[in-house]
Amino acid sequence: MLMNTYPPPAVTFVRGEGSRLWDTEGHSYLDFVGGVAVCSLGHAHPAVAEAVSRQARTLLHVSNLYGTTVGAEVAATLDRLIGGGIGGGIGGGIGGGRVFFANSGAEANECAIKLARKWAGAGRYAVISAERSFHGRTLATLHATGQFQRHPPFQPLPEGFRHVPYGSLDALAAAVAAPDVAAVLLETIQGEGGVWPAPPGYLEGARRLCDEVGVLLMVDEVQTGLGRTGRWFGFEHHGVRPDVVTVAKALGNGVPIGACWARAEVADAFVPGDHATTLGGQPLATSAARAVLRTMEEEDVPGRAAGAGERLVAGLSKLAGVVEVRGRGLLLGVELPPDRPAADVAAAALSCGLLVNPVQPTTLRLLPSLLVTDDEVDEAVSILEDVL
Ligand code: PLP
């Protein structure tokens, strides 16, 4: 028996290929949830399947007490993509940064929070995050998460987290002025919160404010990162350079892995013993990540996501019963009228063979594979049209 942390599933899947899933009865479904932004290359992608099976026959795990070649290679690629992604590295090596591998998004954010505290030094520990944000379910990342209804059962949560309204630079300016602040932690689009993109100028302003008071700008790209928004990272749409970036979800296309990147001067705050993980960065996960990053680079997957996203937005925006379509690339929120519960629409879509996620009471979230075809986009729009 599983713990009672998720509602009973409506369907049980046994197989997937690309954007399609098959259930135990043999019915097929179009998957526009993608394992919650994880399966960005679709299900059973041949490059990932081949990399993982080859690695399983070669070397699964030795712990971080020893080196592995795959992890070092993936770290270098992430460093190039994150640190060098917008006009060259920040200083130091190719991208000017270093990577810590974890097993999930929450763990990647835990690393970021610990790193910020170590970097800032005694007495400076507070992390400012946004209302409606989501950063994970560990005690610290739960407190960073600005969805207050989730906090009460787990009090006392670790100290040192404060929240500001997403988009208000005045509120952020007031918050970072406190002498105990170490970092600001923001999403570029609030995914779990209901798909709310950062308003124009917000991230640029946040960067300026962090620089003025000497605190870190940490960007949580766990959901938005690795092509999902039509560029490699959400922060690239805003032309800012974060000090710390976290990724997970799509990095393993289904194999658990997370990563925390920090520019070298920040990363250097950690010395051996400060942070560790037994499984993080082991060859099975990093071989999947290497195949994911290679495929994404070779096939310009972020560019394909941008194109497919435009087609999907155009199709959805024309539907009767759609109030608004928010988001970027293939991280889209479909706002429904107040009397149209998203959960009911998602259930009806499921029975018509389409998976969509009711992320908020009247918001559906769409997170298809970044390799979704035009025909699949059109099919999903047509199913939603019928359902609505
Ligand atoms: N950060 C963001 C922005 C997320 O969307 C999520 C998960 O949805 C997390 C962190 C937590 O990731 P994980 O569930 O892998 O711990």
What is the topological layout?
Elements: E1 13-17, E2 20-23, E3 28-31, H1 34-37, H2 46-58, H3 69-83, E4 97-102, H4 105-120, E5 126-130, H5 139-144, E6 161-164, H6 169-176, E7 181-187, E8 189-190, E9 196-197, H7 202-213, E10 216-220, E11 244-247, E12 258-263, H8 264-267, H9 283-298, H10 301-317, E13 324-328, E14 331-335, H11 342-351, E15 354-355, E16 357-360, E17 363-366, H12 374-387
Parallel strand pairs: 3-15, 5-6, 5-7, 7-10, 10-11
Antiparallel strand pairs: 1-2, 2-3, 4-12, 8-9, 11-12, 13-14, 14-17, 16-17
Helix pairs in contact: 2-9, 3-9, 6-7, 10-12
Bound molecules: pyridoxal-5'-phosphate (PLP).
Question: Describe it for me?
Answer:
- The chain has 388 residues and is of the alpha/beta class.
- The protein folds into two domains: 13-45 and 300-387, Aspartate Aminotransferase, domain 1, CATH 3.90.1150; 54-299, Type I PLP-dependent aspartate aminotransferase-like (Major domain) (Aspartate Aminotransferase, domain 2, 3-Layer(aba) Sandwich).
- The chain is 35% helix and 19% strand.
- The chain contains twelve helices and 17 strands.
- It has helices at 34-37, 46-58, 69-83, 105-120, 139-144, 169-176, 202-213, 264-267, 283-298, 301-317, 342-351, 374-387; strands at 13-17, 20-23, 28-31, 97-102, 126-130, 161-164, 181-187, 189-190, 196-197, 216-220, 244-247, 258-263, 324-328, 331-335, 354-355, 357-360, 363-366.
- A seven-stranded mixed β-sheet has the order 4-12-11-10-7-5-6, sandwiched between helices. Strands 1-2-3-15 form a four-stranded mixed β-sheet. It has a four-stranded antiparallel β-sheet with strand order 13-14-17-16, covered by helices on one side.
- A hairpin with a 2-residue loop joins strand 1 and strand 2.
- Helix 2 runs antiparallel to helix 9 (283-298), helix 3 crosses helix 9 (283-298) and helix 10 (301-317) packs parallel to helix 12 (374-387).
- It is globular.
- The mean pLDDT is 96.
- Bound molecules: pyridoxal-5'-phosphate (PLP).
